[in-house]
Amino acid sequence: MSRLPPVDRASAPRELDPIFAMIESAMGFLPNSLLIMARRPELVQAFAGLAAAVNLNSDLPPGLNNMIAYMCSYAAGCMYCQAHTHHSAHRAGADTEKLEAIWEYETHPSFSEAERAALRFAQAAGQTPNAVTDADFEDLRKFYSEKQILQIVAVISLFGFLNRWNDTLGTPLEAEPLAYAKETLTAKDWSAGKHDRAATTD
Question: Measuring CA to CA, which of 2, 57, 118, 123 is 20 to 30 A from 66?
């Protein structure tokens, strides 16, 4: 049983229906993290607005948003968000070779120097304490505009919230990302742990 169960979709406040429909359409399922959050509808509305601003207006290369989200979640140690972000990158059509080699981004030939700079930055920013240095910023400036750098920081910050939310609550993973992660990430020391339990609802 999860620490704070997701609410039943049918009993969630009706004003959340448009948000839930949009997210379900984009992800293929409705995340349990939002069904837990639905006890506070104003949080769902505020979070959805921020997430849309971050995710729908990106001018980064396709797939990079998701890989940045994965890398900062990997550094933070949130297994729920690692499963979601790697799965989302796959659904978004990110290069399969890059997804399979993302842990070797520093040396694998499929990654560009620009991608390495962004993923290195995300990995440093996801750590506690934050390990980003002035040199990391200088590396980003070689490849990205100030607007794009803010986009990278926005993705990392959005997932900083989600990492804390889901790791603290032990949010149960949904069937689709759970199956994907068990097949794809287990060899890289991923384990569902507390997130692999029945999502009993209130």
Answer: 2
* CA nearest to 70, candidates 94, 97, 106: 94
pLDDT classification of 186: cutoffs 50, 70, 90: confident
The predicted-structure confidence for 12-31, as pLDDT tens digits, reads as follows 999 999 999 999 998 999 99
Answer whether the bond into residue 6 is a cis peptide, omega within 30°. Answer: no
Local structure of residue 37 (DSSP, 8 states): H
Phi, psi of 30 (to 5 degrees): -100, 120
Measured between alpha carbons, how far is 79 from 185 in angstroms, rounded to an integer? 10
Residue 23: count other Cβ atoms within 10 Å of its Cβ: 19
Quickly count: other Cβ atoms within 10 Å of residue 175's Cβ.
10
User: Which of the listed CATH numbers 1.10.3720.10, 1.20.1290.10, 3.40.50.300, 1.10.1790.10 matches domain 60-195?
Assistant: 1.20.1290.10
The pair of three-digit structure tokens given for residue 8, joined into one six-digit string: 């039943």
Using alpha carbons, select from 108, 134, 132 the residue that is nearest to residue 120.
132
Question: Residue type at 115?
Answer: E
Asked if 93 and 62 touch (Cβ cutoff 8 Å), the reply is yes
Place of tokens 């799965």: 87
CA distance 68 to 116: 10
Q: What is the pLDDT of residues 81-132, one digit of tens each?
A: 999 999 999 998 889 999 999 999 999 999 999 999 999 999 999 999 999 9
- Total number of residues shown for the chain: 202
* DSSP state at residue 186: G
